[in-house]
Amino acid sequence: MSNLPKEKASRAIDWTGEHVVTTVHSARRRYDMALLRFQARLESTQADRFFPWLVTLVLWVVLALLAVARSKDLGLNSTLGHHLQALHLMEFGTSPEISELGINIFAQHAAFIFFPVALLARIFPPTETLLIIQSLAISLTAVPLWRIARGPGNLRIGASSALVFAYALHPSIQNLNLSGFHPEVFALPALLAAYLEGQKERWWSVGVLLLIVMTSRSDLGLAVAALGVVFIFEDKKRHGSAIVSLGLSWFLIMAFIVQPIIGNGEYPHLSSFSSYGTGSFGVLFGMLSDPVAVFGDLFARESFEKVLLLVAPVLFLPLVRMRYLIPVFPLLALYLVAEGGVDELSNPQQDVALLPFVFIGAVYALTRVGVPGVKRILVDKRVLAVLALTAVVFFIRDAASSPYEQPWDWGRRDVSDVARIDAADSLENYDRVLAHPSVFNLVAERETVKLLPDGNYYLPSLELVSGIDVIIFDSGISNWKEDEVRTFTHAVQTLGFKEEFNRSGITVFSKRP
Predict the structure, then answer these.
(1) In 3-state terms, what secondary structure has residue 474?
(2) DSSP label of 265
(3) Dmax over Cα atoms in the chain, in whole Å?
(4) Alpha-carbon distance 209 to 194, whole Å?
């Protein structure tokens, strides 16, 4: 009799354990069935039409809010200010000579697509207009990416969604959205759409889309040529060869004829290759005569990290289909050996030419690792889960909008921000201004505005302040010692400037007539 309760308890424990296992199994089965029903609805033609546009709308709202909020708390870099000054000068019918760069805005990259953007910026607030249009261009890329995955890639909804998710979280995409304004952003959707239209043999549409790509930045002619090589690899030799010729011709004409004519008589980015020689032929000869130096730059640590950041967030999938990456290697090499200054976001505008090829390669990589289903390619859910997880990890680690950057706090202004805005409002429209980067975008809409050097302590020179009416000094970002700030202030006053504003570390010195 004494053993009976123990047997009942043992049976109860066994029954409970079996019941839990059965419940979990049933719940998982119900979840799988619900997921399959949801995917079946999305697999319909009607859902396939509107779903990528819904994703684009949501992504656009998120990116636009992030960019505008970052602008409100003065967190965007000076490339926005360059285009704001260009807009101001173009509105008054003046040549858009950027004071800080010393050249016409169109001589820098031959980004003629900026003309229609400037027309819109005349109607709406310029800063918000530039940022919202840029976010729209980034978001629109989700549509051709989805169409490629669902069309030529023949992937199911899950794989297509994972790729679009990886695109939305890619650090280069997030950083591009928060790195000021770059006209080359319009090439992102245009390049992918041009590839998609080429698959459908709609070559007139391809031509229009490639015109958008080339007019967004001159060296993207090399990306156009790379797309032509991709078409050649896909047995579209006649049209592919024509596209290669178009891209190369555009780049050479813009870089060595049009841009020098608009600018200072030479290709404006030759200085980025000055370590190899002077002048176009000197640089070319220097590269050919010293291949060791070229390979040293190509395989430097910074170059490795740049390439890693491009392909790692998509689980290195493009490396499975190298034929979609190889054509763009020459342009990537050009970027890697250049000595241009690297901003805090690692120049994400240079990734515009590379990302379309990365994601096209990723589409066909999933096609290869998947297995044929009844109608479409089936990719293991575990692979897609790891792809999504990898995208999240690199987003958190490297994106400018990572949770570690606390984007929910953006848009709030502290006392220093208010002082910066008040200092900018105290200026006259005709003042020629020398300002720290933190204030540059606030005062950019004028004829003359330059950047005050930021970094280690220095004394202002007569050459630095030549032709300047107002200096805006921000001790909050200079990290100088108090005695260094006092010495700088005294030196500025010695050069004939008077202190007119001083609050929360923001000082305005004026030398108006």
Answers:
(1) strand
(2) S
(3) 111
(4) 6
Q: Read off the tokens for 177.
A: 């959205």
Q: Cβ distance 180 to 80 under 8 Å?
A: yes
The backbone torsions φ and ψ at residue 179, rounded to the nearest 5 degrees and listed phi first, read -115, 45
Closest by Cα among 224, 229, 386 to 316: 386
Q: For residue 187, give every residue at least 6 positions away whose Cβ sits within 8 Å of its Cβ, in sequence order, or none.
A: 212, 213, 216, 217, 220, 223, 352, 353
DSSP state of 466: T
Name the DSSP letter for residue 454.
-
Looking at the DSSP bridge assignments, the partners of residue 450 are 434
Is the pLDDT at 4 greater than 60? The verdict is: no
Q: Answer yes or no: are the C-beta atoms of 46 and 407 closer than 8 Å.
A: no
Euclidean distance between CA atoms 410 and 325, whole angstroms = 37
368 alpha carbon, distance to own chain's centre: 29
Q: How confident is the model over 146-167, as pLDDT tens digits?
A: 999 999 999 999 999 999 999 9
Of 32-36, 137-141, 341-345, give the lowest mean pLDDT range.
341-345
Distance CA 109, CA 417 (A): 32
Any idea of the CA torsion for 273, 277, 278, 284, to the nearest 10 degrees?
-80
Per-residue pLDDT reduced to its tens digit, 332-384: 998 988 876 556 677 899 999 999 999 999 999 999 999 988 889 999 999 99
Q: Nearest 5 degrees, angle CA 205-CA 214-CA 49? A: 40
Both tokens of residue 496?
Answer: 């004939």
The reported pTM is 0.89
Chain center to CA of 512: 39
Backbone angles phi, psi at 498, to 5 degrees: -115, 145
CA angle 278, 281, 287 (to 5 degrees): 80
In 3D space, the residue among 348, 289, 356, 269 whose CA is nearest the CA of residue 318 turns out to be 356
DSSP 8-class letter at 258: I
- By DSSP bridging, strand 506-510 and strand 498-503 are antiparallel
CA-closest candidate to residue 164, choices 147, 178, 179: 147
Check: CB of residue 84 under 8 Å from CB of residue 91: no
Distances (CA, A) of 284 to 226, 275, 290, 327, 338: 21, 11, 10, 20, 13
Q: Quote the CA–CA distance of 336 and 350 in Å, as a whole number.
A: 10
Place of tokens 């679009």: 164
CA distance 368 to 341: 39
- Going by C-alpha positions, the residue among 450, 453, 411, 445 that lies closest to residue 67 is 411
State the number of CA atoms in the 13 A half-sphere of 379 facing the CB: 28
Measure the CA–CA gap between 89 and 402, rounded to whole angstroms: 36
